[in-house]
Specification:
single chain, 23 helices, GIY-YIG endonuclease, 32 strands, 7-stranded parallel beta sheet, alpha/beta, Rossmann fold, binds zinc ion, binds adenosine-5'-diphosphate, 6-stranded parallel beta sheet, 738 residues
């Protein structure tokens, strides 16, 4: 019998895969894409088998200890995809694999288990219960049993004391099971039928379906204003893919924030006995692992019908192990959350294009405000543009009004026109949505005597005052402390909140409109599981009059009764020190404005600004993406920024300031003079200190990719020249350069 070996990528920062011997019994079992346990020095480690070979000529090979999976977690196409992605982003393959796999599979601990508690009714007797709440909960359980405990938690705000009481009366019983859990269980889904498409929608669906029928890679840009029916185009294009026996992958930004979109997919496809799987960071490790396995098994254990037909997920779902992929959709393709900002710094939308190309399936990028890079590629013919220029039906885009804050009467951050507009909505029983992209009560507590404020001990940033919880918090490292009685600098007693965050805005509004029902949507109010869903449901049920929030409120919500959108501080994103500030601002404004007037009623938008002449704002007023893009592109071209040039950011960081600075200097000196590459820096990052680490960056810029690729080929060597205490992160196509 021939000796066999496995090439294994350890899920660790190693520059290349290692080879291990395969004992006979394991050789029978193992396939590429399975995890194995192998010795590494005196320890054990987990790796993914890349290939099984007969070439075992290397000396002193150690054997594989154990095969950890019974099915490959990654098929060969997916392995090749991740290999290319890791090469493109200059990130070790093992770590790229670790990012691609659901959390928890990279360690030797056993796979995460799911506990699910079901609640049953013990008796159907009508009993005289004293509390109305007890009655309600019991009724609910009776009608829906067995009921997930998690569902009860979503339906009733804090059901535990009630449940305890019911259990003590022997009216209910619990049953703990270990099963796969659908994180979206409890969402009400009613069947939904395909719409009759508009002419534009129909030609978009036709073009996409032609590509899916041919099994060809065609990249599309579905450029449609908010409310133009993009989602319906996705749904019907996917319908055709499923009919042909294939699967669909749908990427969305921060899925936990857009339960409505998931609900629409389920409403359409579950009515046809199709299974919609969801993958996102709000799920527990166990839930994600379970979903991953369901996708891998694809109905293998249980026969037909158990496979997942559609996977909807945030950026990491681009690695979902679908084996019959027929189409990839990237919704809101311009969204920055597609870029992972740590570790394996990939861009999910770009990888979707890469995967589509490798698997020969069409990729549909959808947006009302495409990334300028996508817009430009469509102009050049590299993306095929499918325009949806109008809103569905007679709905018009909302009227946008700028308020000049330099001359307006302002109280508590609210200008008079905005206050009046909110008041009108309250009188008419319509909803208002206010965007203020800063959470907390105020960004500073400022000393009236010396101007001092609290600063984070770990980062170069002031601490934000959160009044409700009476804490000062760092929004970068989550450090928190209670405020002292006096100024941390001069000891004076006059610390006052300065500036406005969402918490303060909500409080101001409550004071001004005492009868109004005000809710807040930001990271503080939505961090608990199900909280975001609950807020959305309350908005839909019109139990909220004014919703205040950060950019979260801009994302994809479809609230029919919102007729007013107010943008409190349009200048905040515009003045950001970043070449993409204008692009980000325009898209944020257009997206949040797009939340107004989605129902029968006409919508209006009020934008407060100190710079009403800014051309970005005038384009937003006119809903004019094209003019905005045509103004912005020449500026990018002049400075050779994307889409005209390519960037790589090198981030050098460490605990010791001097050695970070030295390393950065040396590296920049070494790179300087490379033909075709401009080396900018080293410079201190705008946030020089973050989580106690000092940070410097070197920006590499080039008109074409090849010189950058060539330069990056030497990157492994750069790291070797650094002391162990200084680390180097390579960010290809960076988005955030803070
Ligand atoms: P977008 O995703 O572009 O913001 P949606 O797909 O959410 O737009 O569509 C906006 C609204 O119009 C939704 O309520 C949707 O159900 C409805 N809609 C979409 N297409 C059609 C159609 N062809 N006929 C009637 N209504 C439609
Ligand atoms: Zn901090």
């Amino acid at each position: 019998m021939t000796v066999r070996c496995a090439e294994v990528a350890l899920l660790a920062p190693l520059p290349r895969p290692l080879t291990y011997l395969l004992p006979d019994d394991l050789a029978m079992q193992v396939q590429p894409g399975m995890r194995v346990k192998v010795p590494l020095g005196r320890r054990s480690a987990v790796g993914v088998v890349l290939a099984v070979t007969d070439d075992c000529s290397l000396p002193r090979l150690k054997p594989v200890d154990e095969v950890l999976d019974e099915l490959p977690l990654l098929n060969e196409k997916l392995l090749e995809f991740i290999r290319r992605a890791s090469a493109y982003y200059v990130h070790p393959l093992g770590l790229a694999l670790k990012t691609a796999l659901p959390a928890g599979l990279g360690s030797l601990q056993s796979a995460p288990k799911i506990k699910q508690t079901k609640v049953y009714c013990r008796t159907a007797q009508q009993l005289e219960l004293r509390g109305a709440m007890q009655r309600q909960v019991l009724d609910y359980i009776e009608q829906h049993q067995p009921v997930d405990l998690a569902v009860l938690r979503e339906q009733f705000s804090s059901p535990y004391s009630v449940l305890q009481r019911l259990e003590s009366l022997d009216l209910i019983r619990y049953d703990v099971q270990e099963t796969a859990r659908d994180p979206f269980v409890g969402l009400n889904v009613s069947a939904d039928l395909p719409q009759v498409l508009t002419t534009e929608q129909a030609s978009a669906v036709d073009a996409i379906s032609a590509a899916t029928a041919e099994q060809a890679f065609v990249p599309f840009l579905l450029h449609g204003v908010t409310g133009s029916g993009k989602t319906e185009v996705y749904l019907q294009s996917i319908q055709a893919v499923l009919a042909a026996g294939n699967q669909a992958l749908v990427l969305v930004p921060e899925i936990a924030l857009t339960p409505q979109l998931v609900a629409r997919f389920r409403a359409r496809f579950e009515a046809q006995q199709r299974r919609v799987g969801v993958l996102h960071s709000g799920m527990s490790a166990a839930e994600r692992y379970d979903m991953w396995r369901a996708i891998v098994r694809d109905g293998r254990d249980t026969g037909e019908g158990d496979g997942v037909d559609i996977v909807i997920g945030a950026r990491s779902a681009v690695f979902a192990p679908l084996s019959r992929l027929g189409i990839i959709v990237v919704d809101e393709e311009h969204d920055d959350s597609y870029k992972q900002s740590e570790g394996f710094r990939y861009q999910g939308r770009d990888l979707a294009l890469m995967r589509g190309q490798m698997e020969k399936v069409p990729v549909v990028l959808g947006s009302a405000t495409p990334a300028l890079t996508s817009y430009r590629r469509a102009q050049q013919g590299a993306l095929r543009c499918l325009p949806l220029p109008q809103r569905i039906g007679d709905r018009t885009l909302p009227q946008v009004e700028l308020v000049d804050m330099r001359t307006a009467t302002v109280e508590g951050g609210l200008s008079e026109p905005l206050i009046e507009a909110i008041d009108e909505r309250l009188q008419r029983g319509e909803q208002s949505l206010l965007l203020l992209n800063r959470r907390g009560f105020s960004p500073y507590l400022l000393c009236g005597d010396c101007g001092g404020s609290y600063r984070c001990p770990n980062c170069d940033i002031t601490l934000t005052w959160h009044r409700q919880v009476a804490q000062l918090r760092c929004h970068y490292c989550d450090y928190m402390q209670p405020p002292k009685d006096c100024c941390p600098q001069c000891g004076g007693a006059a610390m006052e909140p300065e500036g406005m965050g969402t918490e303060r805005l909500a409080a101001e509004l409550q004071q001004r409109f005492p009868g109004a029902r005000i809710a807040r949507m930001d990271r503080d109010t939505t961090s608990a599981k199900g909280a975001q869903q609950a807020l959305v449901s309350k908005m839909e049920a019109r139990q909220v009059d004014i919703l205040v929030g950060t950019q979260m409120v801009a994302k994809g919500h479809d609230f029919a009764a919102v007729t007013l959108v107010g943008i409190l501080d349009a200048d905040a994103t515009l003045n950001f020190p970043d070449f993409r500030a204008a692009e980000r601002s325009f898209s944020l404004l257009a997206q949040v404005a797009g939340r107004a007037g989605r129902g029968e009623l006409q919508g209006a938008v009020i934008v407060q600004t100190y710079a009403p002449d800014n051309p970005v704002l005038s384009c937003a007023v006119d809903h004019d993406y094209h003019t905005f893009a045509e103004q912005e592109l020449p500026m990018r071209q002049m400075l050779l920024y994307p889409p005209y040039g390519y960037l790589v950011n090198l981030l050098i960081s460490g605990l010791d300031r001097k050695s970070v600075e030295n390393c950065a200097e040396q590296l920049a000196g070494m790179l300087d003079g490379t033909a075709g590459v401009e080396v900018l820096g080293p410079a201190a990052c705008p946030l020089f200190r973050l989580r106690n680490r000092y940070r410097m960056q070197i920006l590499l810029k080039s008109e074409t990719r090849p010189p950058l690729r060539q330069l990056l080929a030497g990157a492994a060597q750069w790291r070797k020249n650094f002391p162990a205490t200084v680390s180097l992160a390579i960010d290809v196509d960076p988005v955030d350069m803070m």
